[in-house]
Amino acid sequence: MSSVDGRLLPERWTLPFDGTKPAELFKEYAAIGQKLGTDAWMFGKATAREFFPYKFMAKGEPIGRGGKVFVGKQTSSRLFITIDPDADMFFTSNSLRGDNILVVLGKNATIDYLAALEEKNVSYLVTDDVTNLRKVFMLVKHYFNIETISLQGGGIINGAMLAQGLISELSLVMYPGIDGLTTAPSIFEYLGHSGEHPAENQSLKLISVEEMAHGIVWLRYKFYKKMNIEE
Questions:
Q1: pLDDT tens digits along 101-128
Q2: DSSP string for 59-106
Q3: Helix and strand totals (H; E) in the chain
Q4: 129 — phi, psi (to 5°)?
């Protein structure tokens, strides 16, 4: 969910006309997430850190290669997925909001960190390059039978997915408030230089518009991608 100016920090948003606090409105957002019916939902690392703020202090050697997979506890109907390029997120539970966790790691993950995840029954997948998201999701599909994922931010992982052409639909829940600060994080935050165009050759077609409680608006767009035939 974002403010009407596309910003992502709810503590900065103005209150809606009826005075309902943002925390209450996130119940509507959570309900929408369930309606999407995906096999998994996902946060980038910065957003996942809000729920697991502690850092694992590794002492072992890096595994040094991709390909290692551990299937932990899987009793929920959906999985929660996050990507941890630093392999240092300290998980105090093997679930988030009732959904079992899968963490994607790079070959810098240490042996003792993987052992700690296994002890917590947290599923993991080690890949050679966590920035190659297309390959990451191919592996997630292969090992965990995940076909569809609801990506719920933050802006950096959204931007990376956009740039690699991996988004098939944009489900935008707009909160009836404003941030207004130019430096506040926004829906898409691709970390590139000014000459790059992460949304190039991608266009949106409106699928539906739905007015929710308290002035929330739910917009759905289909992504269409044009093939580059100039090569």
A1: 999 999 999 999 999 999 999 999 999 9
A2: -S-B--SS--EE-----SSSEEEEEETTS-B--S-SEETTEEEEEEE-
A3: 5, 10
A4: -145, 105
